[in-house]
Amino acid sequence: MAGKLKLLVCCGNGAGTSMMIKLNVEKVIKKIGLDVQSIYHCAISEGKSLASQYEVVLCSKNFVPMFQEAEKKGTKVIGLKNVISVKEIEESLLGVGIK
After folding, report:
1. 9: which residues sit within 8 A by CB, 6+ positions away?
2. Contact predicate 58/96, CB 8 Å
3. CA dist 54 to 37, 40, 87, 95, Å?
4. Could you list the pLDDT tens digit for every one of the 99 residues in the chain?
5. Which residues are CB-contacts of 96 (< 8 A; sequence separation ≥ 6)?
6. Neighbours of 16 (CB within 10 A)
């Protein structure tokens, strides 16, 4: 992927967990030097309608099926097993070809 990325981070309520994921994504971005335009965190209900406007969606593994329509439009959806693991976030981003 080239150019500035837009990342969407979602959790059940769009408050605590998605904010923690966002903070850890920011650490990974700084570490691996991703060119990111924005990171937005929100609740799954809002994220479902916004997802296709983003290149990457990060959420808990159990929410991945909710983003099937966005995946069909080319959005990469990353389901995290451990939502607070910086290592898992880094490996997941690199695993889907985000560099």
Report:
1. 18, 21, 22, 25, 39, 40, 41, 42, 57, 58, 59
2. no
3. 10, 10, 22, 18
4. 556 899 999 999 988 999 999 999 999 999 999 899 999 999 999 999 999 999 999 999 999 999 999 999 999 999 999 988 999 999 999 998 877
5. 56, 76, 78
6. 11
